Amino acid sequence: MAKKKKIKKTNDERILDQHHIEYEETVFNWLEEGYNALAEAQAAGIEAKSILKTIVLRTSEKETDHLVVCLPLEYELDLKLIAHELGEKQVHLADNKKLIKITGYVHGANTPIGISVRKGFPIYFDERIKKFEKISVSAGQVGRSVRLKQSDLIKLVNGKYLKVQE
Predict the structure, then answer these.
(1) Ramachandran area for residue 27 (φ above 0: left; ψ -120 to 50: alpha; else beta)
(2) Bridging pattern class, strands 23-27 and 144-149
């Protein structure tokens, strides 16, 4: 009988363990296999709208004023609406080339868990995810996700709900 290869935990999974938060680890091979992430999730029986992407925004020209918005993979942000909802003049996408410096994560691995704990950025969630008991977010590594109770994640990162699209 072959031994199952144990996958090393990510820092974000360790954070969840430290806070005694239950989660399921999900590994997506869509990059290697040439699949679409949504198609692979659906094949695994996970509703696509419960899988969140993490977008880093800045609220001013200052390099230090950042926030995070998490929304389902298939949706887009309305930056004008988000600025209005937050009472800001404007919000902009953070520079992808500087993401690792800003968040500590590469593009595709940004996660509200690590960004909240490491950087203390405000974390917002698309209000449309309220209907899901469980959601998936990046585990801090490209192709790795954690699926956990929405309420546990919101509490851990001190998240708030936000209207991100009309």
Answers:
(1) beta
(2) antiparallel
Q: pLDDT digit string (tens) for 37-65? A: 666 667 677 788 898 999 999 987 666 68
Q: What is the pLDDT of residues 65-115, one digit of tens each?
A: 899 999 998 899 999 999 999 999 899 999 888 999 999 998 888 999 999
End-to-end CA distance of the chain: 54
The CA distance from 40 to 29, in Å, is 8
Burial 36-65 (b: 16+ CB within 10 A, else e): ebbeebeeeebeebbbbbbbbbbbeeeeee
pTM, rounded to two decimals: 0.88
User: Which of 114, 106, 99 is CA-nearest to residue 13?
Assistant: 114
Locus of tokens 């926030």: 67
Whole-angstrom CA distances from 4 to 13, 20, 33, 141, 145 are 19, 25, 21, 21, 19
